[in-house]
Design brief:
The complex is a heterodimer of chains A (665) and B (166).
Chain A lengths: L3 E6 L11 H9 L4 E7 L5 H13 L4 E6 L2 H14 L7 E5 L1 H5 L5 H20 L7 E4 L3 E5 L3 H12 L3 E5 L14 E2 L4 E2 H14 L3 E4 L2 E9 L2 E8 L14 H5 L5 E2 L8 E2 L2 E2 L11 E2 L5 H5 L4 H5 L12 E7 L1 E4 L3 E3 L25 E3 H8 L20 E8 L15 H15 L4 E6 L9 H10 L4 E4 L2 E7 L2 E8 L4 E7 L1 E6 L1 E3 L3 H8 L26 E3 L9 H19 L3 E4 L4 E3 L9 H5 L5 E7 L5 E8 L9 H5 L5 E3 L4 H9 L2
Parallel strand pairs in A: 1-2, 1-3, 3-4, 6-7, 6-18, 7-10, 18-29, 20-27, 21-22, 21-27, 22-23
Antiparallel strand pairs in A: 5-30, 8-9, 11-12, 12-17, 13-14, 15-16, 19-28, 24-25, 25-26, 31-34, 32-33
Helix pairs in contact in A: 1-5, 2-3, 5-18, 6-7, 6-15, 11-12, 12-13
Chain B lengths: L13 E6 H13 L8 E6 L7 H9 L4 E6 L10 H19 L6 E5 L5 H18 L4 H10 L7 H9 L1
Parallel strand pairs in B: 1-2, 1-3, 3-4
Helix pairs in contact in B: 1-4
The chains are: A alpha/beta (665), B alpha/beta (166).
The structure holds flavin-adenine dinucleotide and iron/sulfur cluster (2 copies).
């Protein structure tokens, strides 16, 4: 027989003003199973909690109901107190008679009747509560970081510097991401390479970082503290251990005219290549599609010239399994290609701006490569079509961004600032040139940002025109840009030598596929979703997975680095414990009833349901049943409501508990 | 008693099944903002609308509820990734079934109330209470429950034939 103790709180006057607390205590005291009931001024205060603890001991209570504020407020407080008095914390429930009763009703009689019913409901529920054990899972103190842009690099270095091993996986032949492509960076105009490459080298030399480049995530299994990740290491055709990075192979390769993606296809590279001279690792990769050896079986020059014998045409893709306890996703962004509507995309094309058709209409990243001292033009701003210096240059902002009718309604956040930067770089390099900017708004919140933007107008003589471009076409070797200046209400026409489009920042291609492998959520654009927009901005809703950088939304470098360090801090917090405790609200399968239909498995968004074989003593298979991994289970209970044979039950929210509440009404 | 508050002949019993993360929190917010609404509703908290078995709704009606409200996070905002999507599909089918059985669907309401929508909670609860009050007590299920126990005479030819075939 249960001996339930009920404690009605006055909450000062917050409850007692509209609820007759003494009457509630009296009436509830008569319910079967209730051994003790009382009311008290402040249950959450020290004396209130002591009253609770002492009464549990003196009255030998088996269950407790505290009728007070919302459980979202003080459930932890009271469960802790109950635990301190030697009861299992899950034998304590709260009845919400403040937020759901005294505060929302004025009539004392009505509110009192309602309060009695609410408490009665919880009394019936608590009778069915079971002792729940605290669930602990071990923590593997190694971390996976996916993506080696500045976000991934920063997170990896922070975690590794704290002494924990990091596995860093990058899809491209080198780490660095977009920041490695930038020329100089706002708001200080320091050279991107100069601040980036030391960090890249730190990654390469760090004893705690295991770097897999030219690699992708194949499969992610497990759960917080205990992930098993299968990594596909694509065949590089060069042995990383043997290669010294001398570069002789690249010099000798007869294939020379492959557009280099790193240089936005402005520069050329051989078939065996590193994407840029400062690449980390400095080991070349053979582009098998363009290599003569792979296409025809002839050539093989690179193998012949390679001193250490590192070139290996037989190399195959390899699968490697790594055990980690936490995952940081830092896969960054891509720029929207605007020439046509991308296949399968909800976003419409921007054919009207001539990108992809008029060679001197380029995007912002291409401009970065032109302006970069280590770029294909050695830092000179030259037209891709004829190599001439453009004397009139037009920048158009918000291409794709903030254009709901085109499919993207968000602001790409970095374009206002980098366009201002581009006008400055242009002015520094082409002294007699004139830059025009078509813009809708200038969005420059950020430390020293507005000052930077103003400088581009006031000191670097960029002409800002508020308005959109309506038409753009080639005329001789000029590009005619027609638009309106809505500030003065006139049409403007500029004969430009070059046009730079600030195209929308989008997630990386395949971001959705990766999210599905990881079991994390993403928005309609494929940006990854944080658990809470304000209070948990670097955590995924899926425990043990964290976000850093532009994969979560458009971000500049300072923000990216902050988020990466924050994600690293979250990983460190996780690694500060040997075992992980979690709320025992998890589903459990009653194997006797389970018919093995796995309807539960289909609806589980966490992938917590596994198949378990039941065998007899001789080892013969009797049946296959569902098993819920308590480390993975999110505790939503969707499986229970789905199970046709009622064989899975969510602890803390069992049918028994809920039906008891309904029947109490 | 408030002097200007009308007294109704019938006060319906409304049961609300809500998720912890959105609607329960929304109802809490209505409280902290001291909004006022009719006291007819009793709230049952679930981790997620995904956990709500349609059987609970039947049970509630059987237990004398005159109206049932099911409310959770907005689509896409589920704390548990996708629980509310499953719930939505499940209830779409369940509504059809109830309709088929002859339950007036006006007694069963689904809504999305987020943790920020204290005002919406008040609106939804108030509207449902008023609607159900106007409809009067729910009797269909009580009659069904009676029929179940019915063991009257087999007194017509058709009944006799049917009886013999069982
Ligand atoms: C034209 C332009 C100019 C800019 N100028 C500035 C500036 O001056 N100052 C400033 O602060 N910011 C600037 N930015 C913004 C800056 O580029 C970003 O803030 C920064 O690059 C974001 O870093 P990230 O690591 O999140 O993403 P990224 O740099 O995109 O890195 C992501 C990395 O992940 C890898 N990856 C992707 N998918 C996978 C996968 N599935 N598996 C493994 N690896 C994967 C990619 O190959 C890449 O290496 C500019 C942006 C643009 C477009
Ligand atoms: S084998 Fe391929 S990569 Fe090597 S030199 Fe020949 S073409 Fe270049
Ligand atoms: S593969 Fe050989 S030749 Fe090419 S960089 Fe490495 S060591 Fe030099």
């Amino acid at each position: 027989m249960s001996r339930i103790g009920v404690f009605i709180c006055h909450c000062g006057e917050n409850i007692s003003r509209t609820v007759d607390v003494e009457r509630v205590a009296q009436q509830v005291g008569r319910l079967p199973g209730v051994a003790f009931s009382t009311d008290y001024k402040y249950m959450c205060s020290d004396p209130g909690q002591n009253l609770l603890k002492n009464t549990i001991r003196e009255q030998k209570l088996t269950h407790v109901v505290v009728a007070a504020c919302s459980p979202r407020m003080h459930e932890r407080t009271f469960r802790k107190a109950v635990e301190a008095a030697g009861l299992n914390p899950f034998l304590c429930e709260m009845a919400n008679i403040r937020e759901h009763c005294s505060w929302v009703h004025e009539d004392k009689e009505e509110a009192t009747v309602k309060a009695v019913e609410i408490v009665g409901m919880m009394v019936e529920r608590v009778k069915k509560n079971r002792v729940l054990p605290t669930i602990t899972v071990p923590v593997t103190k190694r971390s996976l970081v996916i993506g080696g842009g500045i976000a991934g690099i920063q997170a990896a270095l922070d975690i590794a510097d704290c002494g924990h091993e990091v596995v860093l996986v990058e899809r491209e032949p080198s780490i660095g991401g977009h920041m490695a492509q930038l020329s100089e960076t706002f708001p200080t105009l320091d050279c991107s390479q100069c601040i980036m490459t030391p960090k890249m080298v730190d990654v390469a030399n760090h004893p705690k970082i295991k770097l897999y480049t030219w690699s992708e995530i194949e499969l992610v299994e497990g759960y917080i503290g205990n992930f098993q990740v299968t990594i596909k290491k694509k065949a590089r055709s060069v042995d990383e251990d043997k290669c010294t990075g001398c570069g002789v192979c690249m010099e000798k390769c007869p294939v020379r005219k492959i557009p280099n993606k790193f240089d936005c296809n402005l520069g050329m590279r051989p078939a065996i290549y590193v994407p840029f001279p400062q690449a980390v690792p400095n080991t070349p990769v053979i582009d098998r599609e363009n290599c003569i050896k792979f296409k025809t079986g002839k050539c093989g020059l690179c193998q012949k010239v390679c001193g250490p014998g590192a070139v290996d045409y037989e190399q195959e893709d390899r699968l490697i399994v790594e055990a980690v306890g936490a995952i940081v996703v830092a896969t960054g962004f891509d720029l929207y290609t605007i020439d046509e509507k991308p296949k399968g995309s909800m976003i419409k094309g921007y054919g009207e701006f001539g990108h992809g058709k008029i060679p001197d209409v380029i995007d912002g990243m291409t401009f970065e490569r032109l302006a970069s001292a280590s770029g294909p033009t050695g830092g000179r701003i030259l037209r891709p079509s004829d190599g001439k210096e453009p004397k009139q240059i037009v920048f158009i902002q918000c291409i794709g961004s903030r254009a709901r009718e085109k499919g993207i309604s968000y602001c790409s956040k970095v374009c206002c600032m980098y366009t201002a930067k581009h006008t400055m770089l242009y002015h520094h390099k082409v002294h007699d040139g004139q830059a025009y900017v078509f813009f809708m708004d200038a969005r420059t919140p950020g430390k020293s940002y507005d000052e930077f933007w103003r400088r581009s107008i006031e000191e670097e003589e960029a002409v800002y025109i508020r308005g959109m471009v309506s038409r753009l076409y080639q005329k001789g070797d000029k590009i005619v840009v027609q638009g309106s200046d809505i500030a003065v209400g006139v049409q403007v026409e500029i004969e430009a030598d070059m046009v730079v489009l600030a195209t929308a920042v989008q997630p990386q291609k395949g971001a959705d596929t990766l999210a599905q492998k990881l079991g994390i959520s993403y928005d309609k654009y494929n940006f990854y979703s944080e658990a809470h927009a304000k209070l948990r901005p670097v955590e995924c809703a899926t425990a043990g997975i964290y976000l850093a950088g532009a994969c979560q939304g458009p971000k500049d470098i300072p923000e990216t680095v902050s988020q990466a360090s924050a994600a690293a801090a979250k990983v460190m917090a996780l690694f500060s414990k040997d075992k992980l405790e979690r709320e025992p609200i998890v589903a459990r399968v009653r194997e006797a009833g389970c018919v093995g239909c796995f309807a539960c498995k289909k609806v589980c968004a966490y992938g917590a349901v596994e198949e378990k074989e039941i065998r007899d003593r001789q080892g013969n298979l009797i049946k296959v049943v569902a098993y819920v991994n308590p480390g993975v289970c999110g505790g939503c209970g969707t499986c229970q409501a789905t199970c046709p044979s009622k064989s899975v039950e969510l602890d803390g929210y069992t049918d028994e508990q809920i039906v008891a509440m309904i029947e109490a009404l | 008693m408030h002097p200007d508050k009308p007294k109704h002949a019938f006060e319906p019993k409304i049961i609300a099944f809500v998720c912890t993360w959105c609607t329960y929190a929304g109802a809490d917010l209505a409280g902290t903002s001291r909004m006022q609404y009719p006291p007819n509703v009793r709230v049952l908290k679930f981790p997620c609308t995904g956990r709500i078995d349609p059987v609970f709704i039947l049970k509630a009606f059987q237990q004398g509820a005159d109206g049932v409200l099911v409310s959770g996070c907005h689509p896409g905002d589920c704390h548990y990734i996708a629980g509310n999507f499953h719930a939505r599909r499940r209830f779409a089918v369940f509504r059809k079934l109830l309709e088929f059985v002859g339950v007036d669907l006006n007694r069963l309401q689904f809504s999305w109330v987020s943790a920020a929508e204290g005002g919406k909670w008040v609106e939804v609860v108030t509207e449902l209470t008023e609607k159900v009050r106007a409809m009067g007590p729910m009797s269909e299920f009580k009659e069904l429950a009676l029929e179940e126990q019915w063991s009257g005479a087999i007194n017509t030819a058709e009944l006799k034939e049917a009886y013999n075939q069982i």
